[in-house]
Amino acid sequence: MGYEIKQFRESKKINLFGYEFNNSLGLAAGLDKNGDYIDSLSALGFGFLEIGTITPKPQYGNQKPRLFRDKSSEAIINKMGFNNKGVDHLVRKLKKRKSDIPLGISIGKNFDTPNGLAKEDYLHCLEKVFPYAAYIVINVSSPNTQHLREFETQNELANLIQPIKERQLKLVKGHGYKPLFLKISPDNSKKRTEEICETLLNFSIDGLVCTNTTVNHNHSSGSGGLSGKPLMETSTEILKVARRYLGNDFPIIASGGVMSREDYLEKINAGANLVQIYTGFIYEGPRLIDEILN
User: Fold this and answer.
1) Fewer Cβ atoms within 10 Å of its own Cβ: the N or the C terminal residue of the chain?
2) Torsion of CA 244, 106, 259, 65, to 10 degrees
3) pLDDT digits 0-9 by tens, 14-72
4) At what angle do helices 118-129 and 154-175 cross, to 10 degrees?
5) Which pLDDT tens digit goes with each residue over 151-193?
6) What SS3 class is residue 73?
7) Whole-number Å distance between alpha carbons of 115 and 254
8) DSSP per residue over 130-167, as a string?
């Protein structure tokens, strides 16, 4: 209450995959799933926003209660399950936006689409959002859609991303090049992470979002993905593994556990080009943006 949004003093612009970012701090996917608040969020000082995860058809998501705060550990546990209003709603919002902040758009599959047909959901969303995105994120790492993380195995991932990459290259002719990113889980082993990175390189995927939420927790709510302070160490270790394997020039967006400027700098020092916040923003509000950028 009474918090005044300041003019942000960090003026270092970031040029990455053809876009200029006013700064390297962004909002992670999950807060504005449907693009309903793009202009409002862009006014807070973020360098970019990630919208979604969006699916072809609207869906309610998992049953409530499905969102919990663990204040003692500064964490959030969510079982949301890609609740969203569908990709057509998002496109209508994208057409009406007034701000020019770079937008990442996270795409996924509907809960009732079997994995064998999932590529059609991703392709449908890719085509719909391609004209409006700065980059598109293939989300295969949410723990709240049944069997989704099976796509993180090497063969399954290759079979999914190959047709998506092919469609991306076709869409370039009408809309220019829009990079494809993959969002991965923090619960992968070092070997699995390296296998994922190998697949990214083999199929010329443009970037990595590192990471999603973790299922390794003992919260009384049971299953669901944990974000916030307890995720910081695990997520950063996966980031370091990915950076070592992918080399210095591969774009990586870090997400997971950033609750302070020190956490932000740790992600940068671990190899991130851009950094996202979510749970820290829930707990601290706009003051966290101010703290990090000023």
Assistant:
1) N
2) -130
3) 999 888 999 999 999 999 999 999 999 999 999 999 999 999 999 999 999 999 999 99
4) 30
5) 999 999 999 999 999 999 999 999 999 999 999 999 999 999 9
6) helix
7) 27
8) GGG-SEEEEE---TTSTTGGGGGSHHHHHHHHHHHHHH
Q: What is the DSSP string of the chain?
A: --PPPPPP-----EEETTEEESSSEEEPTTSSTTSTTHHHHHTTT-SEEEEEEE-SS-B--SPSS-EEEEGGGTEEEE---S-BS-HHHHHHHHHH------EEEEE---TTS-GGGHHHHHHHHHHHHGGG-SEEEEE---TTSTTGGGGGSHHHHHHHHHHHHHHHHHHHHHH----EEEEE-TTS-HHHHHHHHHHHHHTT--EEEE---B-----TT-SSEEEEGGGHHHHHHHHHHHHHHH-TTS-EEEES---SHHHHHHHHHTT-SEEEESHHHHHHTHHHHHHHH-
Of 24, 106, 142, 185, the catalytic one is 142
In sequence order, the 6+-apart residues with CB closer than 8 A to the CB of 240 are 270, 271
Which domains are delineated in the chain? 14-293 (3.20.20.70)
Query: Do the beta carbons of residue 49 and residue 42 sit within 8 Å?
Result: yes
Asked if residue 213 has a cis previous peptide bond (ω within 30° of 0), the answer is: no
**pTM reported for the whole predicted model:** 0.94
Indicate if 24 belongs to the active site. no
Q: Which residues pair with 275 in a beta bridge?
A: 25, 254
